[in-house]
Amino acid sequence: KRRPESLREEKSIVKTKILVVHEEQPVRNMLFRMLEQQGYEVIAAKNAEEGLKKLREEEFVLIVSDIKMPGMDGVAMLEKIKKANQNTEVIMMTGFGTLETAVQSLRHGAIDFLFKPFALEDVTRIVKKAVGRYHLKKAEGLCDTTIAISIVLDEKNNIEKINVLMENYLGYEEKELLGCPVQRIFSKEFWQASWNYFIKTQI
């Protein structure tokens, strides 16, 4: 566990984590730089097997994977990802010659696909959509249990009190978080999604 003072010093505890899976290092490096520059935490894997191993070790908001890879292909990996964690979003990368496979990947749960070669604007738009959907699903899950899970903020939006279930949800004890700005605990996307869900349920 981190010491309380370290929590206050860090810019953000929760950072959107993305896994990039592609056999070609130049493509991995390009996506790594593109996404990192947009503020995401990026991990790279060279094939589906390595990607699934990393997925077992830590949780990702989004996985961006090529479809055609040696060994296990992207669609087979997608099926395993969705069986392991329905919340994790997946974007598939494909060449123009594999449109049918790309459509198949949507049927298996991918949120979208990128045609190669892709432009920065396309990556930004589709990744933002996928991250937004992930946080919306997480917000809906949290809002559905708001009676049991609670967090109290002071007038400066610093954490004043949390209950035991919120401690379990965050993985920190209350004493470690007291006085920490709430935006260092939850991402901006999460709060926006929570607010959107609240508005939707009031209509």
What does this structure look like?
By secondary structure, this protein is an alpha/beta fold. 49% of the residues lie in helices and 16% in strands. The protein has nine helices and seven strands; from the N terminus they run αβαβαβαβαβαββααα. It has helices at 4-9, 25-37, 48-57, 74-84, 99-107, 120-143, 164-170, 174-177, 188-202, and strands at 17-21, 41-45, 62-66, 89-94, 112-115, 151-153, 159-162. The strands form two sheets. The chain has a five-stranded parallel sheet, with helices on both faces. The chain has a two-stranded antiparallel ribbon with strand order 6-7. The longest helix is centred in the middle third of the chain and has 24 residues, at 120-143. The radius of gyration is 18 Å and the shape is elongated. Residues 1-13 have low confidence and may be disordered.
Key structural traits:
disordered N terminus; 203 residues; two-stranded antiparallel sheet; 9 helices; five-stranded parallel sheet
The major sheet is characterized as: 5 strands, parallel
Share of β-strand residues: 15-25%
Termini separation comes to 41 Å
Report the total helices: 9
Helix-strand sequence: HEHEHEHEHEHEEHHH
List the helices and strands and how they pair.
Blueprint: H1 4-9, E1 17-21, H2 25-37, E2 41-45, H3 48-57, E3 62-66, H4 74-84, E4 89-94, H5 99-107, E5 112-115, H6 120-143, E6 151-153, E7 159-162, H7 164-170, H8 174-177, H9 188-202
Parallel strand pairs: 1-2, 1-3, 3-4, 4-5
Antiparallel strand pairs: 6-7
Helix pairs in contact: 3-4, 6-9
